[in-house]
Design a protein that fits this description.
Helix content: 10-25%
Mean pLDDT: 87
Structural class: alpha+beta
Oligomer: single chain
Radius of gyration: 23 Å
Length: 290
């Protein structure tokens, strides 16, 4: 009788072991390694969707500017800085638009965001890593609470295009499940797709009539939450990471809320000048914990 009970116990234990193995085999690999190497740095499978964004105040993040949530993907939020970063390395011109705009690139006809002479990406990485040079430039503090929620992403692999139908869908970045407090390309410029869908009033599509298409209500609402300066002499805007449809242009969001493109090396002959607004993918828990 005791042998029979022992046999039944061994049989039940064996069945339980098979069940455990079956369950473990269905879990994502990163869950099996949680607490060791962390989740794999692969992007989410879902396309981000626009939201009427919440606001992260400056004192909540440790930055000197508020941040606006404009989209979500799974348990992550795409946020953009409300104000441009100050890049002028001299003194006495902090937050003066006439001194804080940037050329997209060091050279004409170079509208590749990934190029090592792309000033927009250089300034964003310097800001995020606290390496921007100057007494009045903006740097994200090393102890900023925001850093505890920033995620790796695939923005540099989804540059997108500008001003055509495909541009409305070919530039959506996605977060990974890997948190990163420092490093290059954690912060990035928005794409044409992201601005047209999540942050704008109109967007240019050259093959459609009318050329300027109205953006959706969520994008229009979010645009009202950021600050792009304007003056009587210049059309200021936000640089995007998407290249323009000609070599001398790159995607931009103007102060009027129009997504199109600007010349990449503005001079006195141009009225269009771009500022730099970092974007980040963050864990949405940031809105609960800060």
């Amino acid at each position: 009788m005791r042998k029979f009970k022992l046999f039944r116990f061994q049989k039940s234990l064996l069945a339980l072991s098979f069940l455990v193995i079956l369950v473990l085999s269905t879990l994502p690999f990163w869950m099996l390694n949680a607490g060791t190497e962390g989740p794999l740095a692969t992007a989410m499978s879902d396309t981000p969707y626009g939201v009427d964004g919440r606001i992260l105040s400056a004192n909540m993040t440790g930055d000197v500017s508020d941040w606006i949530e404009i989209a979500k993907c799974d348990h992550y939020s795409l946020i953009v800085r409300k104000n441009y970063i100050n890049i002028y390395s001299g003194t006495g011109h902090y937050d003066e638009p006439t001194e804080q705009y940037a050329a997209y690139s060091k050279k004409p006809a170079t509208n590749n965001y990934l190029s090592n002479i792309c000033l927009v990406r250089t300034y964003i990485n310097a800001w995020f890593n606290g390496l921007a040079f100057g007494t009045e430039v903006d740097n994200l503090p090393a102890d900023a609470k925001l850093r505890n929620y920033t995620m790796q992403n695939n923005a540099t692999k989804t540059l997108g295009t500008s001003n055509n139908v495909a541009s409305l869908n070919d530039g959506f970045s996605q977060p990974t499940a890997t948190q990163a407090s420092t490093g290059n390309n954690i912060a990035f410029a928005l794409s044409f797709s992201e601005s047209a869908e999540f942050l704008s009033i109109t967007h240019e599509v050259k093959t459609l009539t009318p050329t300027d298409q109205p953006s959706n209500l969520t994008a229009i609402t979010n645009y009202g939450k950021i600050t792009i300066p304007q003056t009587l002499t210049h059309s200021y805007g936000m640089w995007l990471r998407s290249p323009g449809d000609t070599p001398n242009t790159a995607g931009a969001l103007s102060y009027t809320g129009r997504v199109s493109q600007y010349p990449i090396n503005p001079t006195n002959s141009y009225n269009e000048r771009g500022f730099i607004y970092p974007a980040l993918w963050v864990n949405s828990d940031i809105f609960e914990h800060l």
